[in-house]
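REQUEST ID: PR-0412
SUBMITTED BY: lab tech R.K.
PRIORITY: routine
TASK: structure prediction, single protein chain
INPUT:
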Amino acid sequence: MKPAIKLIGIGDNGKASLLPLYLDWIEQCEVLVGGERHLQFFTDFKGEKRLIKGPLSELIEQLKQEERKIVILASGDPLFYGIGNYATQKLGNVEIYPHVSSVQLAFARLGLAWQDAYVTSVHGRSIKGLAQRIDGRQVIALLTDAANSPSVIAQYLLQYGMNEYRAFVAENLGGSLEKTGWYSLQGMAEAEFSALNVIILQKQFDGPVWSLGIEDDHFLQRKPDKGLITKKEVRVLSIANMNLRPDSIVWDIGTCTGSMAIEAARIARLGQVYAIEKNEADLDNCKQNAVRFRTDITAIHGKAPLGLEQFPDPNSIFIGGTGGEMQELLHVCCSRLQADGVIVLNVVTIENLYEANKAFAEEGFKTQITLQQVSRSKPILDMNRFEGLNPVYIITAKKQEGNEDSLSKGAAASE
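STATUS: complete
OUTPUT:
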């Protein structure tokens, strides 16, 4: 039987961070695997060294063929944004011996309890979507890398107006060059830091708070033709029908001011929101609104269905307008929608209602339709009256299972 692979966490102070037993295992192993910095701690190692560089999958395949004793070195806790989970899944017989994680050390240096902290990483990952992930959280621990350095992160947060946060940066934790300190976001944006660092963001005062159903007039809109926005009441009901999860991938087609994309992004904080708009002036408003409401969405110029091929397959789709391409657009959306996904379409005419319902039925989708008629109070002299908004049909469509025969005959699929 092949010996178990030992995966050992190591600190920035090298051998001094390891128990004597771990040092014995390293000395006795025949293959020592690690990053360049880790392997440099063991210049006197007699066996074979293998550098972790390039695709991990190639290294894992090599290790699968090994019959010799193997030790893998990893920074801190290998199961905390590290190689541990991947190695265990792919190699099977792996024993993990963690060191203190960099985040744990950073909070220790700060003397701050961290059981309620939100921890996330942009190490080897895109910074995209960070704004909505962290907005409003009291304490955030952030793992960085050379591309997403503290100065880059500070510039990003300043772009979204997150001035209520200050930053504690801990560099080279546990090593001879360890350095820690507090920074304003502006100060962090202008400073230079070691590539090995952890950031802790702490909220100093309350920032803006937006609950579901942001007021219409809080969004930048096209002037002088205001009103090209999914109204708050319609927006809330449409959002409720989209079955959004924290990690949903969302499309907003015909986004205009971006109100639906923004509301969706504030719910699907760990997911991704993609918007498309054919009018460049509206698209510019959408992008400005996204920054205003701290949502890092992807918004592009185009007339759907052209352009949708750039987006990953969605869990939820909102369609605010079809631009005369109803059948083709719905075919693309139905084809790309992930299993158990939802499409919500707003239309204002009975002709478009009929065409949409028919197109969904032909695609094998079941629809539920709500006619929303809303009136808002409006002052008149010293009294109030009600003024009606345009009625809107909200069509919610889901894939229908087990009814292919009736659907192929064009049977209506509405409830």
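NOTES: The longest helix spans residues 280-292.
REVIEWED BY: pending
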